Amino acid sequence: MPAAASAHRPGLRITRALARRFDGRSPASLDPDLRVFVSDLVRPYGLPLREDLLGEGAGHSYEELAAGPLREALADGEPVDLLILAFDTPDVRPGAPSSLALGRAVPGSPLAFAICDQGTAAAFTALRLAAAHRATGSCRRAVVVLAEQTALHHEPPEPVPLPERHAVVVLVCEDDPAGGLEVRQARGVDDPARTVRGWAEELGPGAAVLLDAGLGGERPPAQPFTGLWALLAEQVPRQRPVLAAGYDRRLGVVSALMLP
Amino acid sequence: MCDRSGVVILARVTALEAVAVHLPPRAVPIEAVGERIGLTPRQLRLFRRFHGLDQLRLDPDGKLPDLLDAALDGLTELRGRERHVRFVIHARSMPVAVPHPLNPLHDLLAARGLGHASAFTVTHHACAVGLLAIDLAGRLLAGEPDERALAVVLAGEKTFTRDAQLVPETGIFAEGAAACLISAGGERHRMLSFAVRQRPEFDGRLAEDADLLARYQRAYPNVMVEAIEAALEQAGLRLGDLAAILPHNVNQASWRMISRRIGFPLEKVVLDNVRSVGHSFAADGLINLHTATARGLVRRGDHYLIAAAGVGATFSAMAMRS
């Protein structure tokens, strides 16, 4: 039976959203350690390396990509309590704790960590975790960083959309006593589009509805992980309720961010 | 309830209802692993004589889901309650563990009747991430209206590359795994506090940067003690209130030093598994809780503290009441 995740009433609202896309590469893409790591990673699975990408140097690091947008989004110098990095495609420094470095670069020395392994749903889960921190009392200001980079240094074991450009979206979430963002997630629903329509109706007829490729948005998606959130960034600050929804077809997870 | 500034917050209980441990049956002497990964005889003597390492539990024929599945298999308290599990969190030291876009966590859960749960990996706290996963599980459960809601934290990793085999001059990794069932209403093993200290200035190539390694080693006991003291203060406890400290299994020497520095009896630091299991990434704390309860070191009503450090660097401590 599909189990819809329950609602949070966390009291965080998104006050600033920045979306940035990048070209180029990180010096880390030519680090010999990358070849060692990827070789060890794929060996048990019998997957070939992408010698072309490893040889020419391709891909970017999430620390380098996000540092500038974070500075820009947090230029007011107000302290941040929590920084969550969410990603799907691996960092070009795959073993690096880049969220910690980003946390040190923002005001307030926030608790920093990263989440992954949930496809496109990880972005929603990052916001859900921020809301859960606010609801349980240890967060008045959080920043969620969503990142993707173009290079996969091995042949994928199955088809997977990769981003056309490196991209970062920064979502600044601040305390809102009137109640704020809400994230809903469900897995295994028969009709994810209908599920999302039902959630959207709760926001009223004037709500803006943003959908990712899994729900009929741009296909194939140019930016599979951050594309939806770049659309959201255009709506912030906003004049009306917004629902941003995504469906990860591989994992069967439907997610929605509801901004009343 | 409200916080100090008057903002409404959810009261929460984070309770470990059950812990299951999987130790791969193959116990490999550190010398055999050292030969494979290129450790010198001097380095191996350091690990055996000074750091107190002996054997490592490894599963050379298994993959990541085999470890996690075996740990879940031992979590008998979960059986019949799968539909109440809302969240499954893999606490993982290595941010990338399988080729993209494979996702063995989700495949494993579907086969276990947990396919409905929201499942993801939390990372970047290296071997301290197990404590973060417990804290996150409790926060997520606090927002669930169904008081029967549960979360599962999984920990355990493969030693598939050099960075997942060795912390230079400090420890050698093993492949123990653990599964933990968490509720928002259990009476036993309740979390009282969680303190984290992060020091990203120590991220880097410890094996090649002798200066960085030396600075990290100098700071290590100080920051670990800082996290322990912060967790105790938050919980309103003193060291003397603790029946045990459950450390990460990186080595014995660092815990001898910390124990001496804070004045805590070494015999109450659960170090059994450093010799017989090895440093199993983020699973150590749960493996050691299993050992401590089995040995009667932690009994009903006792206070204890779980502590861990991860390269990169994160230092965490969690005070608990059994």
Task: Explain this structure.
The complex is a heterodimer of chains A (260) and B (322). Chain A contains 7 helices and 10 strands. With 260 residues, chain A is an alpha/beta fold. Chain A folds into 2 domains: 12-175, Peroxisomal Thiolase, Chain A, domain 1 (3-Layer(aba) Sandwich), CATH 3.40.47.10; 179-259, no CATH class. In chain A, helix 7 (227-233) links the parallel strand 8 and strand 9 (242-248). Chain A is globular. Chain A starts with a strand and ends with a strand. With 322 residues, chain B is of the alpha/beta class. Chain B has 2 domains: 15-183, Thiolase/Chalcone synthase (Peroxisomal Thiolase, Chain A, domain 1, 3-Layer(aba) Sandwich), CATH 3.40.47.10; 190-321, Peroxisomal Thiolase, Chain A, domain 1 (3-Layer(aba) Sandwich), CATH 3.40.47.10. Chain B has helices spanning 30-37, 41-50, 64-73, 104-111, 129-142, 210-235, 253-262, 272-276, 284-294, and strands at 15-22, 26-29, 55-58, 85-91, 118-123, 150-155, 166-167, 171-172, 177-183, 190-198, 242-246, 303-310, 314-321. In chain B, strands 1-9-6-4-5 form a 5-stranded mixed beta sheet, sandwiched between helices. Chain B has a 4-stranded mixed beta sheet with strand order 10-13-12-11, with helices on both faces. In chain B, helix 6 crosses helix 7. Classes of the chains: A alpha/beta (260), B alpha/beta (322). At the A-B interface, helix 1, helix 4, strand 4 and helix 5 of A face strand 5 and helix 5 of B.
Summary, kept brief:
The complex is a heterodimer of chains A (260) and B (322). Chain A is an alpha/beta fold and 260 residues long. Helices cover 27% and strands 26% of the residues of chain A.
List the helices and strands and how they pair.
The complex is a heterodimer of chains A (260) and B (322).
Chain A: E1 3-4, E2 12-22, H1 32-42, H2 51-56, H3 62-73, E3 82-87, H4 98-104, E4 111-116, H5 121-135, E5 141-148, E6 166-175, E7 182-187, H6 192-202, E8 208-211, H7 227-233, E9 242-248, E10 253-259
Helix pairs in contact in A: 3-4
Chain B: E1 15-22, E2 26-29, H1 30-37, H2 41-50, E3 55-58, H3 64-73, E4 85-91, H4 104-111, E5 118-123, H5 129-142, E6 150-155, E7 166-167, E8 171-172, E9 177-183, E10 190-198, H6 210-235, E11 242-246, H7 253-262, H8 272-276, H9 284-294, E12 303-310, E13 314-321
Parallel strand pairs in B: 4-5, 4-6, 11-12
Antiparallel strand pairs in B: 1-9, 2-3, 6-9, 7-8, 10-13, 12-13
